[in-house]
């Protein structure tokens, strides 16, 4: 079943180009074989009830763990692309401290298993408390999952099936990437409805999405061996720091979570600009820093935050498209990723961080697919 891979996790990392392709193919009506940009100006078909997305004023997202990280990328997209104020809540917090009721609100539950107790409870609570308080407060629930047959869909009639299929490794990989793809489609659909993006920009982003599967393949092909070799340097490391900004801050969080859950190495993530407000005190030669530095709004800022870490003797690993010559000035080690539109970059920056966590844990001889103390579905509170 592992098809020659040592662990399910690695197999699932390698399934990502296919998963992204099949998620996009399900909801994008474009010509996949032609090199041309999308034929239709509005090719997104999510198949949701029309009333769900009409006259929205805000979005709230409830989720746990890695799905919460996908929600953070979703927030960035919904706010920056569709101009919709969005809050992301840990489901376990929201269910006991719900935010004040606001009208015309879309509530999105994100869960790969579709069975996470806290996420289901938060959605149920939202449904109950909005019952009978007037039309404009009516519950509008949307689920994002790869398990459309799960308990989630009994509670939430509108589902975006991410088409990631079943994931066996306890560490979420392909399901995360597919959840993020679902958020791109939703944000672009809403941007079109709300006219917050020009037709040209929409076309450019859709074309960018279409390129992603081949670009993920490129990252996998170029880095698999390299990251495996690099992992030897970190087998004995005790602490890691991950930094990113903007749309790549959630990817720093996700990279750190992957490392801690399967390798049991302590890892923390911060928005790079926060380092000087405390965490920089942790840095020395024993604490490597992984910096996600993608060209765009915060590129120079991340590079200068990275330099500050290097000045504290931390080994600096850059996830960046900078060429070797340029990168050498800033980073000790580079995990190269193709240069893409900043908005689409999280899909590509995720992959080297998954590989890094995987290879460190595998070299430590750990049970990567079944890490201690963790379960694939957390069906208890
Ligand atoms: O099934 P869900 O997406 O609702 O699960 C949420 C978390 O339990 C899950 O993402 C967990 O953090 C994973 N082990 C992450 O790899």
TrEMBL record:
UniProt GO MF annotations: glutamine-fructose-6-phosphate transaminase (isomerizing) activity
Coarse class of the protein's main subcellular location: cytoplasm
Superkingdom to which the source organism belongs: Bacteria
Organism expressing this protein natively: Lyngbya confervoides BDU141951
Subunit: Homodimer.
Protein location: Cytoplasm
Record field: catalytic activity: D-fructose 6-phosphate + L-glutamine = D-glucosamine 6-phosphate + L-glutamate
Function: Catalyzes the first step in hexosamine metabolism, converting fructose-6P into glucosamine-6P using glutamine as a nitrogen source.
Residues the record marks as active site: 376
EC code: 2.6.1.16
Lineage of the species this protein comes from: Bacteria, Bacillati, Cyanobacteriota, Cyanophyceae, Oscillatoriophycideae
The keyword Transmembrane is assigned to this record: no
One of the GO biological process terms: carbohydrate metabolic process
Any one cellular-component term (Gene Ontology): cytoplasm
SIS domain residues: 48-196, 230-371
Descriptive protein name: Glutamine--fructose-6-phosphate aminotransferase [isomerizing]
Residues of the full protein shown: 253 to 633 of 633
Keywords for this protein: Aminotransferase, Cytoplasm, Glutamine amidotransferase, Repeat, Transferase
């Amino acid at each position: 079943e592992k098809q020659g891979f040592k662990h399910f996790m690695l197999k699932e990392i390698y399934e990502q180009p296919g998963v992204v392709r099949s998620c996009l193919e399900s909801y994008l009506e474009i010509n996949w074989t032609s090199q041309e940009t999308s034929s239709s100006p509005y090719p997104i078909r999510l198949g949701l009830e029309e009333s769900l997305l009409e006259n929205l004023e805000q979005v709230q997202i409830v989720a746990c763990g890695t799905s919460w990280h996908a929600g953070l990328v979703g927030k960035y997209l919904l706010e920056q692309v569709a101009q919709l104020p969005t809050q992301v809540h840990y489901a376990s917090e929201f269910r006991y401290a719900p935010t004040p009721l606001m009208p015309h609100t879309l509530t999105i539950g994100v869960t790969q298993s579709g069975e996470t107790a806290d996420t289901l409870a938060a959605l149920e609570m939202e449904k109950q408390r909005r019952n009978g308080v007037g039309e404009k407060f009516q519950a509008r629930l949307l689920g994002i999952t790869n398990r459309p047959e799960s308990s989630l869909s009994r509670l939430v009639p509108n589902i975006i099936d991410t088409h990631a299929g079943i994931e066996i490794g306890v560490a979420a990989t392909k399901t995360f990437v597919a959840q993020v793809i679902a958020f791109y489609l939703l944000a672009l659909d809403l941007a079109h409805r709300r006219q917050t993006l020009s037709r040209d920009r929409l076309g450019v982003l859709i074309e960018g999405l279409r390129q992603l599967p081949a670009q993920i393949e490129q990252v996998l092909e170029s880095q698999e061996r390299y990251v495996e070799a690099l992992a030897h340097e970190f087998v004995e490391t005790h602490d890691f720091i991950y930094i990113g900004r903007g749309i790549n801050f959630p990817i720093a969080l996700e990279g750190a979570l992957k490392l801690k859950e399967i390798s049991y190495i302590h890892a923390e993530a911060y928005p790079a600009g926060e380092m000087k407000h405390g965490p920089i005190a942790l840095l020395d030669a024993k604490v490597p820093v992984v910096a996600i530095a993608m060209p765009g709004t915060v590129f120079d800022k991340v590079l200068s935050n990275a330099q500050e870490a290097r000045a504290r003797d931390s080994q600096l690993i850059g996830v960046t498209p900078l060429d070797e010559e340029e990168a050498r000035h800033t980073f000790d080690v580079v995990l190269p990723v193709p240069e893409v539109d900043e908005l689409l970059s999280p899909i590509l920056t995720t992959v080297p961080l998954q590989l890094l966590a995987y290879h460190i844990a595998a070299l430590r001889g750990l049970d990567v697919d079944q890490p201690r103390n963790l379960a694939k579905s957390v069906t208890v509170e």
